[in-house]
Amino acid sequence: MPNLRPFRQVSENDVINLFAHATATDLNKGTLVVPSVGWLNTNEPLAEVGSPGASYANTVSNRYATVAKVTTAGTGEAPLGMTLYDIKETDENGEKLIFNPRKAAEMQVVLSGQTVPIATRGIFLYSGATLASETPAVNTKLYCGANGELTTGVASNVKVAVALGGKDTNNHVLIYLDCAAGGNS
């Protein structure tokens, strides 16, 4: 499962804030994503998706979601970028984050249906199960693997990043991500 550590260097010009994840209720930051429902200027930006919790007769409590969607990238796909926030519904105590937006912001979490920031370029300290089982070295090309994870993988896949160093004792790798224009093979 991918994850980003706090050490990073990213410009806001390289972050896209237009898409929500299509299916995830739990997704880690650092997941590579591809567009599934495109963004259109003529579309309504939000759609009603139901209630935030229990619904009761004679009450109105709507929950809205971003219409444009991304899904988790798979092996060989050219990702749009990497998610910068987790997608979760509850905190560590099982409390719904929809009722505590300040805590969600502090945790760097968005709810399912909310717009998730997606980085297309930057330097990140990355850890993932796939990369942890491999041995990347400095200047190793990294590709989009299964479940939106980075891998040293197959050269026929789309190159999305470069390792700026080897794997440390915590299985973290400093990477330079560059997903501009659907890959840079």
Question: Secondary-structure blueprint of this entry?
Answer:
Layout: E1 3-9, E2 15-16, E3 20-21, E4 32-37, E5 46-50, E6 63-66, E7 69-72, E8 81-83, E9 86-87, H1 101-106, E10 109-110, E11 118-119, E12 121-127, H2 129-132, E13 141-144, E14 150-151, E15 159-163, E16 173-178
Parallel strand pairs: 3-7, 9-10
Antiparallel strand pairs: 1-12, 2-11, 4-7, 4-8, 5-6, 8-11, 12-16, 13-14, 13-15, 15-16
Structure characterization notes:
The protein is globular, with a radius of gyration of 17 Å. The strands form four sheets. A six-stranded antiparallel sheet has the order 1-12-16-15-13-14. It is mainly β. Helix content is 5%, strand content 34%. The protein has one domain (3-52, 61-178).
